[in-house]
Design a protein that fits this description.
8-stranded mixed beta sheet, about 260 residues, 9 helices, binds benzoic acid, globular, 8 strands
Amino acid sequence: MAGRNDWDTDAYDADTAFVYEYGESLIDLLDPKPGARVLDLGCGTGHLTADLAAAVGDGEVVGIDRSAEMVAAARENYPDLRFECVDATEYEADEPFDAVFSNAALHWIADQRAVAERVRDALAPGGRFVAEMGGSGNVAAIVDATLAELAERGYDVDHPWYFPTVGEQAGLLESAGFEVRLARLFDRPTDLDGPDGLRDWLAVFGDSLFADLTETERAAVVERVEDRLRPELYDPETETWTADYRRLRFVAVRQEIA
Ligand code: BEZ
């Protein structure tokens, strides 16, 4: 699995703003207290990092992302905050955090064991790991239609994302030294604005699916994917595509080391 993507940060903010808008309720679940130290893992363009920073007041928030484009945009958006360009599977904290927060980032990471261990080591004992990611069955209609269209054209592609069940994610976290206090898989049908909503979504997130295609081929595949999915995911009256998102949220607490 290689969840690499060429991030267009303007399109990410313009066409998929729901990513951080939905993330605001994940901050409510974290309930960060003034004075806390929080790591935002996969901070993207930094909007939720800024919300976290406002919540912790004189505490500290560090935003990390492996995409240099995302980190540059985050620094430009919030020059007073601390952002680092680093892969979460290699991250080492200089001081322990009270909480690690992550919204819509974990499913891009191939080595889940490594990231769980790095998060554990970045947390103080008793510290919390609060995250949302794509869960089992996430965007299955979009993925299936795209892979089927690619297969018809002779491209044998698998999708790059990790969308676990509750059992898989809880088992991973427990084996890395966490106690799982909450884990929940739920549907979140997500509206993509306008008649171009699906192609915009594929433009922002789909690079690894189309890595072997020319621009012309990619455009043709996207058109056919729209045709395949229109009956199921498009409402012509409201001119809205609805992506079949399924989210997995969890709260896990780092155990004391005996
Ligand atoms: C998600 O946030 O669920 C997601 C984003 C991009 C590709 C796949 C899933």
